[in-house]
């Protein structure tokens, strides 16, 4: 049986928390890959996370920080953790934010 991990509601989304989560280059890189790529993203099966040069517990911390900021939704199904960007929810609360930060290539941006 799958379950969704706790996350803030749309009304609880906070710009400071979102920008605080995205200030970290590794989290911004994770979000960029998920935002531009196909969803859902199975973080337990991702090999590209090794390219970030951080340990698995640190990757888990980054995914938790993104979820707690309200940027992602994580559904646990057995050993699998499927993560989606909450594009529609964030867009309702802060129109254009994710596209401005993650939606286009910029010189010096973080890529994997």
UniProtKB/TrEMBL annotation:
State the UniProt keywords alphabetically: DNA-binding, Transcription, Transcription regulation
Q: Which domain of life is it from?
A: Bacteria
Q: Where are the transmembrane segments?
A: none
Q: Which residues form the HTH arsR-type domain?
A: 7-109
Mind telling me which InterPro entries this protein's record contains? ArsR-like_HTH, HTH_ArsR_DNA-bd_dom, Metal_resp_trans_reg, WH-like_DNA-bd_sf, WH_DNA-bd_sf
Return the protein name: Helix-turn-helix domain-containing protein
Q: What organism, scientifically named, is this protein from?
A: Amycolatopsis dongchuanensis
